[in-house]
Amino acid sequence: MDMRNQATPPPPPDGSKTIWMYAAQPKIYPRSVHGWFAVWRWALVFATQALFYGLPWLPWNGRQAVLFDLEARRFFVFDLVLYPQDFIYLTALLLISAYALFFFTAVAGRLWCGYACPQTVYTEIFLWIERRIEGDRAARIRLDKGGLGAEKLLRKTGKHAAWLAVSLWTGFTFVGYFTPIRLLGSEAIHGALGAWESFWVLFYGFATYGNAGFMREQVCKYMCPYARFQSAMFDKDTLIISYDPARGEPRGPRSKKVQPAEVGLGSCVDCGLCVQVCPTGIDIRKGLQYECIGCAACIDACDDVMDGFNYPRGLIRYATQNGMDQGWTSKQQWRRVFRPRVLIYGAILVAISAALMASLWLRTPFRVDVIRDRASLARLVDDGYIENVYRLQIMNAAESSQRFTITAEGLEGLQLVPAIGVQTLSPAEARWVTVSLRVPPETAQSLGAGAHPIHFEIRRLDPSGGPDRAVLEKSTFVTPR
User: Fold this and answer.
1) Residues 96, 89: Cα–Cα separation, whole Å
2) 318 touches 241 (CB < 8 A)
3) Which secondary structure element, helix H or strand E, spans residue 66, and what is its range?
4) First to last CA, the chain
5) Where in the chain do CATH 2.60.40.10 domains reside?
6) CA 107 to CA 346: how far, in whole Å?
7) Among 25, 26, 107, 198, which one has the highest count of C-beta atoms within 10 angstroms of its own C-beta?
8) Which residues of 356-366 are buried (b: 16+ CB within 10 A; e: fewer)?
């Protein structure tokens, strides 16, 4: 139930106090703003959405460039073919993301939230649609306060139809990373979408529609955990969006022809535009608040006002707490920004990124897993030979056919039965191969009972005549008592 327009009930007659668990908030109508930081925000909106919507349609080696084929357990990223066994690369990506977040937050606060977070990006897109259909801030307020008429119904219907179109296309694109998007489009056109595809398109579309169209700042203020622990990453040398009270106070309106000193006022004209453009509705003049997402819309708005009054820019700006308190110049503040914790974050980030790149560069074009046959660890066969059975999974991580040979070493007289010739794997194919290893009775007797180390060598034959690539996989050979 919407509590925003309901009066607070009187206290109970017994004097007890009622504590409301939901704090009702008025609807926020962000004003459009133009400026340097707005350009940066929209540049990142275009860049991130071109990447998100465009990658599934990009052809690559006869398939789409990025495809996470869960059914086949193969993940295609341009020329890379990854398997679940390559989970270490995902771990490295998560570590890089975490340290990048630590690094940029320690340098300049919530840059991720203000410029690249999907919640911010889609809220910007939905607000742009809203402004085009319903008008700017004043027009939207008048429209919502007015009665239901033909114009209001038409504008509201058009806005929600556009929101739903963007949301469903977003859900469709998301699913297109897991099901080939051209196949998905063909199924959608012919009404043959599968149950799971339909569910995730609608689920992701509904989440986009609800978060960007209705919840907006509530997601940032109450649902996102980042706002709650960001203070642990800030210190007095972190660049944050700051209002300069020494220059701005006392605030108050005045004529453009009057200098602040002449009327005993600061540079702040108390126009309220910094509050009107804020997507979370805060007043930056009250200092740093956890609701601030670092979008810098208030900086653009304030700079525009300062230009109109012929005052210097920077009443609201990126600054550090130490810099504001001690009156440092920008050069002095930047010198303290790159302090030990930032350098440590940066060094770790570079090291992990370099290790990931080196690992991908040196990665073999195939993988092998060796699994012992648990049903029969060891058995006695003809002529007293001891036999162990193994299953080898050979995964071709290249998008061309490859030929392999399999050998085993480590024990005297070790034999591969039956002798396996050259194995040919199709592009990105994974194949299970069952092999048996035998040792003669005299070897088994000399070894004694127990598990003895061996290794399989799977060698890729280079079709161009160059050096072969080989993978050694350790295992054990069990001799019974």
Assistant:
1) 10
2) yes
3) strand 66-69
4) 74
5) 366-479
6) 10
7) 107
8) beeeeeeeeeb
Per-residue exposure over 96-119, b if at least 16 CB sit within 10 Å of its own CB, e if not? beebbbbbbbbbbbbbbbbbebeb
Helix or strand run (H / E) with residue 51: helix 36-54
The amino acid at residue 173 is T
Is the dihedral angle over the CA atoms 458, 464, 467, 469 positive or is it negative? Answer: negative
What are the pLDDT tens digits along the chain (481 aa)? 344 444 455 666 666 666 655 556 788 999 999 999 999 999 999 999 999 999 999 998 888 999 998 888 888 888 888 888 788 888 999 999 999 988 999 998 889 999 999 999 999 999 999 999 999 999 999 999 988 889 999 999 999 999 999 999 999 999 999 999 999 999 999 988 889 999 999 999 999 999 999 999 888 888 888 777 777 788 888 999 999 999 999 999 988 888 888 888 999 999 999 999 999 999 999 988 888 999 999 999 999 999 999 999 999 999 998 888 888 888 888 888 888 989 999 999 999 999 999 988 888 788 888 988 777 778 888 788 899 999 888 888 887 888 888 899 999 989 888 777 788 888 888 888 888 999 998 888 888 888 899 999 988 887 766 667 888 899 999 888 7
Beta bridge partners of 9: none
Q: Could you count the other beta carbons within 10 Å of the beta carbon of residue 296?
A: 25
* 349 close to 398: Cβ distance less than 8 angstroms: no
Cα–Cα dist 338/430, whole Å: 48
47 to 44, 51, 55, 154: CA distances (angstroms):
5, 6, 12, 32
Is the pTM value of this prediction over 0.90? no
Class of domain 366-479: mainly beta
Asked whether 241 and 316 are in contact (CB, 8 A), the reply is: yes
- Which residues are 391's β-sheet partners? 371, 434
Burial (Cβ within 10 Å: 0-12, 13-18, ≥19) of residue 226: middle
Give the β-pairing of 415-417 and 386-396. unpaired
* Residue positions counted in the chain: 481
- The backbone torsions φ and ψ at residue 80, rounded to the nearest 5 degrees and listed phi first, read -85, 135
Q: Residue 397: helix, strand or coil by DSSP?
A: coil
C-alpha distance from residue 373 to each of 69, 179, 387, 392, 432 (Å): 28, 34, 11, 10, 13
Reported in sequence order, the residue ranges of 135-282 that DSSP labels E, i.e. its strands, are: 240-243
Q: Is 171 left (phi over 0), alpha (psi -120 to 50) or beta?
A: alpha
Q: Which amino acid is at 261?
A: A
**Quick check: helix, strand or coil at residue 157?**
helix
**Tokens standing for 130?**
């809203």
Q: Are 441 and 383 in contact (CB under 8 A)?
A: yes
Contact by Cβ (8 Å): 123, 216 = yes
CB proximity list for 272: less than 8 A, separation 6 or greater: none
